[in-house]
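User:
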Amino acid sequence: MGRLVTFPIVYPIYPPRGTSLLFLLIFDFLSIFAYYNNFNMMVDKYNEKYRVPTTRVSWSKYASGVYFITICTYEGKHYFGEIRNDEMIFTPIALFLKENIDNIQSHYPYASIPYYVVMPNHLHLYLVIDISFENLPENYEKSPLVSRIVNGLKGGVTRYANQNGIPFRWQSRFHDHIVRDGKEADLIVNYIRSNVVHWLDDCYHR
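Assistant: Predicted structure:
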Protein backbone atom coordinates (compact mmCIF):
# COMPACT_ATOMS: atom_id res chain seq x y z
CA MET A 1 0.00 0.00 0.00
CA GLY A 2 1.36 3.42 -0.92
CA ARG A 3 1.78 6.23 1.51
CA LEU A 4 -1.48 7.86 2.54
CA VAL A 5 -1.81 11.38 1.22
CA THR A 6 -2.97 13.42 4.20
CA PHE A 7 -2.86 17.03 3.00
CA PRO A 8 -6.53 17.20 1.99
CA ILE A 9 -7.39 16.49 5.62
CA VAL A 10 -5.04 18.80 7.48
CA TYR A 11 -5.08 21.38 4.70
CA PRO A 12 -7.46 23.82 6.44
CA ILE A 13 -5.14 23.77 9.47
CA TYR A 14 -1.75 23.79 7.76
CA PRO A 15 -2.19 25.19 4.21
CA PRO A 16 0.42 24.25 1.59
CA ARG A 17 3.24 26.61 0.81
CA GLY A 18 2.31 29.17 -1.80
CA THR A 19 -1.34 29.35 -0.81
CA SER A 20 -2.50 32.91 -1.43
CA LEU A 21 -3.77 35.13 1.36
CA LEU A 22 -6.92 35.82 -0.70
CA PHE A 23 -7.70 32.10 -0.91
CA LEU A 24 -7.26 31.67 2.84
CA LEU A 25 -9.55 34.61 3.54
CA ILE A 26 -12.20 33.17 1.21
CA PHE A 27 -11.85 29.73 2.83
CA ASP A 28 -12.18 31.18 6.33
CA PHE A 29 -15.25 33.17 5.28
CA LEU A 30 -16.92 30.10 3.81
CA SER A 31 -16.10 28.07 6.93
CA ILE A 32 -17.67 30.69 9.19
CA PHE A 33 -20.67 31.04 6.87
CA ALA A 34 -21.19 27.28 6.85
CA TYR A 35 -20.95 27.07 10.62
CA TYR A 36 -23.43 29.82 11.42
CA ASN A 37 -25.87 28.81 8.71
CA ASN A 38 -25.60 25.25 9.96
CA PHE A 39 -24.70 22.98 7.09
CA ASN A 40 -26.10 20.15 9.16
CA MET A 41 -24.73 16.81 8.05
CA MET A 42 -25.25 13.32 9.26
CA VAL A 43 -23.18 10.43 8.00
CA ASP A 44 -24.28 7.04 6.82
CA LYS A 45 -22.49 4.32 4.93
CA TYR A 46 -23.46 2.92 1.56
CA ASN A 47 -21.31 0.56 -0.53
CA GLU A 48 -18.38 1.17 1.82
CA LYS A 49 -18.59 4.93 1.27
CA TYR A 50 -19.28 7.49 3.97
CA ARG A 51 -21.92 9.87 2.77
CA VAL A 52 -22.60 13.35 4.11
CA PRO A 53 -25.94 14.34 2.59
CA THR A 54 -27.60 17.70 2.99
CA THR A 55 -29.72 17.78 6.11
CA ARG A 56 -31.96 19.86 8.25
CA VAL A 57 -33.75 23.09 7.65
CA SER A 58 -31.52 26.06 6.90
CA TRP A 59 -32.81 28.18 9.78
CA SER A 60 -31.55 25.74 12.40
CA LYS A 61 -28.87 27.24 14.67
CA TYR A 62 -28.07 24.09 16.61
CA ALA A 63 -24.64 23.44 15.04
CA SER A 64 -25.50 19.92 13.94
CA GLY A 65 -22.85 18.54 11.64
CA VAL A 66 -19.77 16.38 11.25
CA TYR A 67 -16.42 17.66 12.45
CA PHE A 68 -12.80 16.50 12.27
CA ILE A 69 -11.16 17.53 15.55
CA THR A 70 -7.47 17.53 16.49
CA ILE A 71 -6.37 18.12 20.09
CA CYS A 72 -2.69 18.27 21.06
CA THR A 73 -0.72 18.01 24.27
CA TYR A 74 1.38 20.91 25.47
CA GLU A 75 4.60 21.21 23.45
CA GLY A 76 3.86 17.85 21.83
CA LYS A 77 4.87 15.85 24.90
CA HIS A 78 4.13 12.12 24.79
CA TYR A 79 1.66 11.96 27.65
CA PHE A 80 -0.49 9.31 25.98
CA GLY A 81 2.12 6.64 25.30
CA GLU A 82 4.45 5.43 22.56
CA ILE A 83 4.13 3.59 19.27
CA ARG A 84 6.14 0.39 18.97
CA ASN A 85 5.99 -1.98 16.02
CA ASP A 86 3.02 -0.07 14.59
CA GLU A 87 1.07 -0.45 17.82
CA MET A 88 0.08 2.27 20.27
CA ILE A 89 1.05 1.51 23.88
CA PHE A 90 -1.29 3.55 26.07
CA THR A 91 -0.52 5.22 29.39
CA PRO A 92 -3.15 5.23 32.17
CA ILE A 93 -4.17 8.77 31.26
CA ALA A 94 -4.69 7.73 27.63
CA LEU A 95 -6.86 4.80 28.72
CA PHE A 96 -8.95 7.20 30.79
CA LEU A 97 -9.26 9.49 27.75
CA LYS A 98 -10.38 6.59 25.55
CA GLU A 99 -12.99 5.56 28.11
CA ASN A 100 -14.41 9.09 28.12
CA ILE A 101 -14.55 9.19 24.33
CA ASP A 102 -16.31 5.82 24.20
CA ASN A 103 -18.89 7.10 26.70
CA ILE A 104 -19.34 10.55 25.19
CA GLN A 105 -23.10 10.18 24.80
CA SER A 106 -23.59 9.71 28.54
CA HIS A 107 -22.54 13.34 28.95
CA TYR A 108 -23.60 14.75 25.56
CA PRO A 109 -26.61 12.81 24.20
CA TYR A 110 -26.52 14.80 20.96
CA ALA A 111 -22.92 13.77 20.14
CA SER A 112 -21.20 10.62 18.95
CA ILE A 113 -17.60 9.80 18.02
CA PRO A 114 -17.70 6.72 15.76
CA TYR A 115 -14.02 7.04 14.80
CA TYR A 116 -11.05 8.36 16.72
CA VAL A 117 -7.40 7.71 17.38
CA VAL A 118 -5.22 8.56 20.37
CA MET A 119 -1.59 9.14 19.42
CA PRO A 120 1.42 9.78 21.70
CA ASN A 121 0.94 13.55 21.74
CA HIS A 122 -2.42 14.24 20.12
CA LEU A 123 -5.78 12.76 19.19
CA HIS A 124 -8.16 12.97 16.27
CA LEU A 125 -11.93 12.77 16.64
CA TYR A 126 -14.59 12.23 14.00
CA LEU A 127 -17.34 14.05 15.84
CA VAL A 128 -21.00 13.85 14.81
CA ILE A 129 -23.47 16.28 16.39
CA ASP A 130 -27.19 15.73 15.89
CA ILE A 131 -29.38 18.32 17.56
CA SER A 132 -33.17 18.29 17.59
CA PHE A 133 -35.78 19.92 19.77
CA GLU A 134 -35.92 16.73 21.83
CA ASN A 135 -32.27 16.74 22.92
CA LEU A 136 -31.50 20.44 22.79
CA PRO A 137 -28.82 21.19 25.43
CA GLU A 138 -29.35 23.92 27.99
CA ASN A 139 -27.95 27.34 27.02
CA TYR A 140 -26.84 25.97 23.66
CA GLU A 141 -26.77 29.47 22.16
CA LYS A 142 -24.19 30.68 24.69
CA SER A 143 -21.67 27.89 24.17
CA PRO A 144 -20.73 26.40 20.77
CA LEU A 145 -21.36 22.67 20.98
CA VAL A 146 -18.01 21.59 19.53
CA SER A 147 -16.15 23.69 22.10
CA ARG A 148 -18.42 22.42 24.87
CA ILE A 149 -17.64 18.78 24.03
CA VAL A 150 -13.91 19.28 23.51
CA ASN A 151 -13.51 21.34 26.67
CA GLY A 152 -15.45 18.69 28.59
CA LEU A 153 -13.08 15.97 27.42
CA LYS A 154 -10.02 18.07 28.13
CA GLY A 155 -11.27 19.11 31.56
CA GLY A 156 -12.06 15.54 32.57
CA VAL A 157 -8.58 14.33 31.62
CA THR A 158 -6.94 17.24 33.43
CA ARG A 159 -8.90 16.50 36.61
CA TYR A 160 -7.95 12.82 36.41
CA ALA A 161 -4.28 13.75 36.02
CA ASN A 162 -4.38 16.14 38.99
CA GLN A 163 -6.20 13.65 41.21
CA ASN A 164 -3.65 10.94 40.45
CA GLY A 165 -0.54 13.08 40.57
CA ILE A 166 0.21 12.60 36.85
CA PRO A 167 2.12 15.42 35.12
CA PHE A 168 -0.05 16.55 32.24
CA ARG A 169 -0.99 19.64 30.24
CA TRP A 170 -3.04 20.28 27.12
CA GLN A 171 -2.26 22.70 24.35
CA SER A 172 -4.57 25.63 24.95
CA ARG A 173 -6.66 25.34 21.78
CA PHE A 174 -7.81 22.72 19.29
CA HIS A 175 -8.25 22.43 15.53
CA ASP A 176 -11.63 21.75 13.95
CA HIS A 177 -12.75 21.25 10.38
CA ILE A 178 -16.30 20.87 9.06
CA VAL A 179 -16.69 17.71 6.98
CA ARG A 180 -18.65 18.78 3.92
CA ASP A 181 -19.03 15.69 1.74
CA GLY A 182 -18.53 11.95 1.45
CA LYS A 183 -15.10 12.27 -0.17
CA GLU A 184 -13.78 14.19 2.82
CA ALA A 185 -15.44 11.69 5.16
CA ASP A 186 -13.67 8.79 3.43
CA LEU A 187 -10.29 10.53 3.60
CA ILE A 188 -10.67 11.38 7.26
CA VAL A 189 -11.84 7.93 8.34
CA ASN A 190 -8.97 6.30 6.43
CA TYR A 191 -6.52 8.79 7.94
CA ILE A 192 -7.71 8.01 11.46
CA ARG A 193 -7.54 4.25 10.89
CA SER A 194 -4.00 4.37 9.50
CA ASN A 195 -2.58 7.11 11.71
CA VAL A 196 -0.62 4.76 13.98
CA VAL A 197 1.21 2.94 11.17
CA HIS A 198 2.11 6.25 9.52
CA TRP A 199 3.40 7.81 12.75
CA LEU A 200 6.95 8.40 11.49
CA ASP A 201 5.57 10.45 8.60
CA ASP A 202 3.02 12.32 10.72
CA CYS A 203 3.28 16.10 10.95
CA TYR A 204 2.85 15.77 14.76
CA HIS A 205 5.72 13.28 15.12
CA ARG A 206 8.38 14.49 17.56
